[in-house]
C-alpha cells in the first residue's frame, strides 16, 4: 500500500525567507508525486508533479520540488515566500501503473503561515 | 474552461434525509474522482470512474453511499440516509487519463460543504 507523510503540521516563515514543506512517501515501484495547495474555502489547486526525468521540478507560483529517491522524499520549496503563500499544502503519491495508477494518496497536509 | 463544477456549494440537512451532490467534470476528461475531507481523516478517495465506469469504490464508507456517472459530463454522489458523521467537504476531481492506470493531473472542484444536523 502507498502512503505519504508530511511531518510538520505547520510551518511558519517570514516573508522573503525561503520556504520548505517536507514530504516523504512509500510506494511500490516508481512513484508519481504531486503537490497541491488549498486556500480557505477553496478546492485543491495543482502546483507541480514529478513523473520521470529531472529530479528538480518547477511549478506554479515560483514553487519547485526536489525528488530524492534514496531518501524517498519530495520536498516543496520556494526561495522567497510571500504572505499570499499562506495556505494548506498537500503532497500526494500514486503508483502510476496498474489499475490503481490513478489513485492518489494524500498526506495529512501542512499549514504554511507567512508573516509580514 | 470553467473547471470542475460542483453543486451545491453548501448543504445543510437533517439526519435521515437523502443528500445528492453533483459534479460536472472538465470537458474531455475521462476520469472522475470523489473525495471527502475531514479534520480527523484528511482527504480520502471515495470512488473513481474511468470512461463512466466505476473502477474502485473501496473508499466508499458504507452502503448508505452511492455514486453514479450516467454520462461523461455528469456524476452524482448520494447519501441515503445521511448521518451527522457524514458532515465533511466533498470534492470532485477529473483528469484526462484515458485508462484506469493513467497518471494525468487531477483537477479539483471547489467542493460541497455538507452539514448533517
What features would you describe in this structure?
- The complex is a heterodimer of chains A (116) and B (117).
- Chain A has 116 residues and is mainly β.
- Helix content of chain A is 0%, strand content 50%.
- Chain A has no helices and twelve strands.
- In chain A, the strands form three sheets. In chain A, strands 2, 5, 6, 10, 11 and 12 form a six-stranded mixed sheet that branches. In chain A, strands 3-9-8-7 form a four-stranded antiparallel sheet, with no helix packed on it.
- In chain A, a hairpin with a 5-residue loop joins strand 5 and strand 6.
- In chain B, strand 4 (31-38) and strand 5 (42-50) form a beta hairpin.
- Chain B has 117 residues and is mainly beta.
- The mean pLDDT of chain B is 92.
- In chain B, the strands form two sheets. In chain B, strands 2, 4, 5, 6, 9, 10 and 11 form a seven-stranded mixed sheet that branches. Chain B has a four-stranded antiparallel sheet with strand order 1-3-8-7, with no helix packed on it.
Oligomer state of the chains in this structure: heterodimer
Over all CA atoms, what is the radius of gyration of chain A? Answer: 14 Å
Average pLDDT taken over every residue of chain A? 92
Radius of gyration of chain B: 13 Å
Q: Please give the count of helices of chain A.
A: 0
Quick overview of this protein structure:
The complex is a heterodimer of chains A (116) and B (117). With 116 residues, chain A is mostly beta strands. Chain A has strands at residues 3-5, 10-14, 19-21, 24-26, 32-38, 44-50, 56-58, 64-68, 73-78, 87-94, 105-106, 110-115.
Question: How are the elements arranged and paired?
Answer:
The complex is a heterodimer of chains A (116) and B (117).
Chain A: E1 3-5, E2 10-14, E3 19-21, E4 24-26, E5 32-38, E6 44-50, E7 56-58, E8 64-68, E9 73-78, E10 87-94, E11 105-106, E12 110-115
Parallel strand pairs in A: 2-12
Antiparallel strand pairs in A: 1-4, 3-9, 5-6, 5-10, 7-8, 8-9, 10-11, 10-12
Chain B: E1 5-7, E2 10-13, E3 19-24, E4 31-38, E5 42-50, E6 53-56, E7 65-71, E8 74-79, E9 88-95, E10 107-108, E11 112-116
Parallel strand pairs in B: 2-11
Antiparallel strand pairs in B: 1-3, 3-8, 4-5, 4-9, 5-6, 7-8, 9-10, 9-11
Amino acid at each position: 500500500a502507498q502512503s505519504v507523510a508530511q511531518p510538520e503540521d505547520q510551518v511558519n516563515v517570514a516573508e522573503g525567507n525561503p520556504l520548505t514543506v517536507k514530504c516523504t512517501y512509500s510506494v511500490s515501484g516508481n512513484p508519481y508525486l504531486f503537490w497541491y495547495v488549498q486556500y480557505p474555502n477553496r478546492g485543491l489547486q495543482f502546483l507541480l508533479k514529478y513523473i520521470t526525468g529531472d529530479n528538480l521540478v518547477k511549478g506554479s507560483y515560483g514553487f519547485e520540488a526536489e525528488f530524492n529517491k534514496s531518501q524517498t522524499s519530495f520536498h516543496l520549496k520556494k526561495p522567497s515566500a510571500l504572505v499570499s503563500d499562506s495556505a494548506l499544502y498537500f503532497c500526494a503519491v500514486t503508483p502510476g501503473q496498474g489499475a490503481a495508477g490513478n489513485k492518489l494518496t494524500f498526506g495529512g497536509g501542512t499549514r504554511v503561515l507567512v508573516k509580514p | 474552461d470553467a473547471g470542475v463544477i460542483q453543486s451545491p456549494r453548501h448543504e445543510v440537512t437533517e439526519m435521515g434525509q437523502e443528500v445528492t451532490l453533483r459534479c460536472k467534470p472538465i470537458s474531455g476528461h475521462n476520469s472522475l474522482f470523489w473525495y471527502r475531507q475531514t479534520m480527523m481523516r484528511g482527504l480520502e478517495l471515495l470512488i473513481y470512474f474511468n470512461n463512466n465506469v466505476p473502477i474502485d469504490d473501496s473508499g466508499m464508507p458504507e452502503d448508505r453511499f452511492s455514486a453514479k456517472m450516467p454520462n461523461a459530463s455528469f456524476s452524482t454522489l448520494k447519501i441515503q440516509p445521511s448521518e451527522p458523521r457524514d458532515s465533511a467537504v466533498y470534492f470532485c476531481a477529473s483528469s484526462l487519463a484515458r485508462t484506469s492506470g493513467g497518471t494525468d493531473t487531477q483537477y479539483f472542484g471547489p467542493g460541497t460543504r455538507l452539514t448533517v444536523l
